[in-house]
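Continuing the batch. This is chain 6 of the set; chains 1 through 5 are on the previous pages. Same settings as before, nothing changed between runs. Recording input and output for traceability.
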Amino acid sequence: MQEKFKDIKKAGIAGILGNIFLLIIKATIGFLTNSQSMIADSANSASDILASFMTFIGNKISSEPKDNDHNFGHGKAEYIFSLFISITMILLSFKLLIDSIFSLIRKSHFEFSWILIIVCILTIIIKFILYIYTKSMFKKYNSILLKSNYKDHKNDCIVTTFTLISILLGLLEIYWVDGVVGIGISIWILITGFGIFFESYNVLMDVSLDEKTKKTIMNLVKEHEDIKNCYNLYSTPVGYNYFVVFTIAVNGNMSTYESHKLANHLEKDVEALDKIDKAVVHVHPVDL
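Output for chain 6:
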């Protein structure tokens, strides 16, 4: 577990350093050339810095062990900070959208520079490296913070590619595409922000297990012939995983020792599943 939090911490730091570098060069060149798409791209980098910083802080809090006040640990901190990231992205997208629309209406022109091209290519390379690295960490640990970050890095590669296209069209004096790309980037950030928001919101609102995992649990129950029925399956998120409670019906003539031995065995089977942190099985004796 400690290795997991250390790796997530490294991913957060890498994101912060990379995005600070990109923010400085993109904002500087964007304002010097008056490129709306580059300015929007630099603002996107600013939100990325916040996202990486939130990843760092959220990971630090969620890495705290269980205690008397937090019996299931601090795992939900990841989702709280992911929610903060999404709200920031949504607010930023509206600001960029308004600025890009006004730029398009006013028919603003930007000053073409090959430095703009170099900045775009450099951004795509750095972001692609961060995307590959962060996604590999997500596949290893299944952290929503890493998921938010690797999606953000992937989006940035796509966004900057469109920025590059709009700047290249500036060579042909087709400047209106710059404003359109700025609008497109704003909408892209908005959609990504809402996606992260709802995923975090669902966990914080204690959304239940997905149907596939529920079906897997029921199949485990069916493997035990002594279990006559299973009902009242409840679940709640605990950090990355779930706490599950359900009741099994057994023959009333079965001894207390045997019925609880059966329940304990079933609990271990369920807890072995990827998404389950803890399982509690209640035993209900019934007449046959």
